[in-house]
Write a structure and sequence with these properties.
The chain has helices at 28-37, 53-69, 89-107, 111-122, 181-196, 198-202, and strands spanning 5-6, 10-20, 83-85, 129-133, 148-156, 163-173, 225-226. It is α+β, with helices and mostly antiparallel strands and 228 residues long. The protein has one domain: Protein Transport Mog1p, Chain A (3-Layer(aba) Sandwich). It is globular, with a radius of gyration of 18 Å.
């Protein structure tokens, strides 16, 4: 449903993907490169001081994840300063609902409840840290010329190896270049997939009961992809 949603004068493309973190850190060369491009991050950054193992671990996994999500773009130049910690979970939920979930819910009734149920089953929302991609350059190629976009990373260490749940969305006008043929094809495919799973949708016990700022607090095992 998230792949491409026809919202009238615009196309909304969303992603919801879960990954297991790997026990990686930055190589010496990567550390030197980050220090060269963002020297202030050594002492302090949204991910913590780059001198700390925790910050290096986070940056290594986030960079690897971005490279997997956006294979056509160079994400290796990201620094800790390109991310922002989001302590207000309710504000993040409101942004996701306003920009993505409620838009899809208008097309697929009950989606909003199912969306947050899936999120809460994938990750411990109450105990996770949330970071947002906020490029210091002010631009991010996959979101160029977009009407609205967000890229959030929900990071939870509950249950062993840390997980990263990525929730992202890019909204583009149908009139903008590059959103016509490809996007329309994706919309058709998304609608076909949705109709084929309609019985599952109607079986949701949550429906559209969640409102802005609300989310579930539960955690179950899920099939994860590994950042290795």
């Amino acid at each position: 449903m998230l792949k491409a949603i026809d919202a009238g004068d615009r196309i909304v493309k969303g992603r919801l993907e879960l990954f297991l973190c790997s026990k990686r850190s930055l190589s010496k060369r990567q550390q030197e490169e980050v220090q060269r491009r963002a020297p202030q991050s050594v002492a302090d950054s949204p991910l913590g001081p780059l001198a700390s193992e925790h910050a290096q671990y986070l940056l290594a996994n986030l960079t690897a994840l971005m490279s997997l999500l956006f294979v056509d773009y160079d994400c290796t130049t990201l620094t800790p300063l390109d991310f922002e910690r989001c302590p207000d979970k309710h504000a993040v939920v409101n942004t996701i609902n306003h920009s993505l979930a409620t838009v899809v819910d208008r097309v697929h009734s009950g989606f909003l409840g199912e969306f947050w149920q899936a999120v809460s089953e994938a990750i411990d929302l109450s105990g996770c840290d949330i970071y947002a991609l906020r490029p210091t350059s002010g631009t991010f190629e996959p979101a160029d010329n977009s009407l609205m976009s967000f890229h959030y990373f929900f990071i939870s260490a509950a249950g062993g190896l840390p997980k990263i749940l990525f929730i992202g969305s890019v909204t583009k006008s149908k009139a903008s270049r590059g959103t016509t043929d490809d996007s329309q094809s994706e919309v058709s495919l998304s609608q076909h997939d949705t109709h084929s799973n309609s019985s599952k949708e109607h079986g949701s016990s949550m429906g559209s009961s969640l409102h802005e700022g609300e989310y579930c607090f539960s955690s179950d095992d899920n099939n994860d992809q590994m950042l290795d």
